[in-house]
Amino acid sequence: MTGLRKRYGATLALDGMSFSVRPGLVTGFVGPNGAGKSTTMRVILGLDAVEEGTALIGGRPYLGLRRPLNHVGSLLDAAALHPGRSGRNHLLWLAHAQGLAARRVDEVIELVGLTSAARRRAGGYSLGMRQRLGIAAALLGDPPNIMLDEPFNGMDPDGIIWMRGFLRSLAAAGRAVLVSSHLMSEVQDTADHLVVVGRGKVIADAGVAELIAAVSAGRVTLRTTAVTHAMSVLAQAGATVAAIGRDTVAVSGLPADRIVTLLNASAVPFSEVSAHRATLEDVYLELTREAVEFRAATPSEVSR
Amino acid sequence: MTPAVTTRQPSQRAGHDGFLQSLHAEWTKFRTVAGWVTGMVVAALMVVLFAVLAGVSSDQKGAPPVPIGPGGEPVTDSFYFVHRPMAGNGSVTVSVSALTSSIPERPGDLRAGLVPWAKAGLIVKESTRQGSPYAAIMVTGGHGVRMQDNYVDDTAGLPGPVSAAAVRRLRLDRSGDAITGYASADGTHWIKVGAAHVSGLGATVQVGLFVASPPVVDGMGTRGSVSTATFGDLRVQESAAGGDWTGDQVGARSPSFAGYPANTSGSFSESGGRFTVTGAGDIAPAVRETLPTGGTLGEILTGTFAALVAVIVVGALFITTEYRENLIHVTLAAGPRRSRVLAAKAIVLGAVTFVAGLAGALVAGPLGERLARANGVYVFPVTPATQLRVALGTAALLAIASILALCVGVIVRHGAGAVTAVIVAVVLPYILTAVPFMPASVANWLARVTPAAAFAVQQTLVRYDQVASIYTPYNGYYPLAPWAGFAVLAGYAGVSLIVAAVLLRRRDA
Question: Any chain A CB within 8 A of the CB of B276?
């Protein structure tokens, strides 16, 4: 995907979006609502045109694929069903569109565990069942690339656990899996690689471990019963401090041994000083802070 | 970054099997939504139901039989006949010096008026039986001298009206089945008007003078008329003496004869070789207006409009539900060649609608006719070819209308909007033309330029130039020929298909 650019009226939806998705990995595609995730996916599928840029699948544009579902399986919207058609028939017409046999339909139904409901009207499916049906549709052509837009939305905890395991197994089988989410927590245990987007462009494109390391760098977590005292002492010494819990303070700008010296000199009690271990949530917030389009007035760093 | 304009032009790699797959997919889509299948069944049943209602509700039991001409067509054969038998071959001549008509607005009102197809002249007829073969030469109120035979044939002769200053002399020769008509303005120069081959006349025919005066078109209805002609120099050349002249009203009791205006009646008088004959009625093919007890195949298929509503709804929903449910994304992701998807949808929808419509029409036509006939209704006869054309045309009309709805659905992407637009375009004009008091000019304009022109495929009646009548869709006469009317609808559908294809390709899904 290179330099995708698209406008809706005055809004620049995609502003030079470029990234690639590698086989064998689950790539998390994260960013706040309105960052351009769904638009990017629609562009990849040839549903939306772009003013600039190209999206290629295995080196070819989607519109040039003869049997596209054999190349990319996608789920953009689990609710995109005719409510009067059974789940099985929904898959059946898709299979016919690709010249696939009805046998393949029954295989994918079994794969996603929808056998018992497959012949019922899809209008009566729960959101979780629709997500499974959507996954089944994506797998129909046994494609090397899978692309899912917000697959965790509306899923119950059992479903989320199933989905995570399922996505990992798809990647383990050598597929390139792209999963979008606006919640980092949904992908943090699943993704190997992250593409973080905001305002129509890529903010970060790196492995999960690298990203955490980058954000964690130079930060120290301090556990103390005298939070206020500790913060004023360290701030005076030129550190950036932030309370992150009732008895925890994040410190950056000072090495750990200097912090210990300063606290001892001022007789501030503390129980632990450790290198800060950022979560993906922190990484995400750090990266998207500038990119969130409509954001509530941010509380000051100190009061966080 | 490699900036490049992305277009929707797919590669040419996909082959024919790709289109077959699209067709297969759209067929699977159609048949797996119970509502759409039901809609098509309902459409077929509507055609049958209305035919049954039309057949059952009509009751013409006890109506006098409709006279049938030698060609099998229903005819009007009611006129005043001053006749005598003529054996074998012979010739008859007469001069006509006056033909006056009146169109009374109330009883006793005998003001003069023009009846263009009032007829006075000579006739050779097998018998006074209605519908029997004949040939005649005549002067008319507004169309000059004519030679007519066997109800449907009409040949023009000397133009201009007849009067004391412009006497018309007429002659009919019989030689076996060959009847030749002549006219002369001066009694010496005879001009052959026409020659007719009339079979079934028999050895002895009835020959003589006749006067007919058909109803005249007056606004949105017709009014009865009566005409009187003055004849002289009546001569019959024959091998044997013929006998006396007798005056008879032919077809006094006939469904196609409205009778005389109040206080008038048919009559003849003779003094010094001058015959004055008064008559009403017509010798002509029957038209819908003159045969109120009759019915047509088109009327039996009235349910077409109800079926039309059903197939328009199904046709529009076939695409607009995809937009409503965002299913269009799945469809276009599976079939990125959008025009091909649209074509596949149109073909599947059209084929299903055609089959449903054909089934409905093939059952409804014969069933409705049988029921109507059992109730004494005279159904205008149609040839098997015409019957087939009506059935195929009705099915094609429904199929193309559903495709039109599909295309409008693509354009407006909204079910109710598409259904409303197409019903307004197709069904509304049809209903307006089916209103009896709609002026003929308006009705014919609607049946010419709107998609409802396609109802011409159900036309079974023939328009005759020699019969003045109200030729409107309400009476079963369409301004366009059957397939020409169908082409109007097909044109609308074709344009909408192109617009839909362009928009589908150009717009983001």
Answer: no
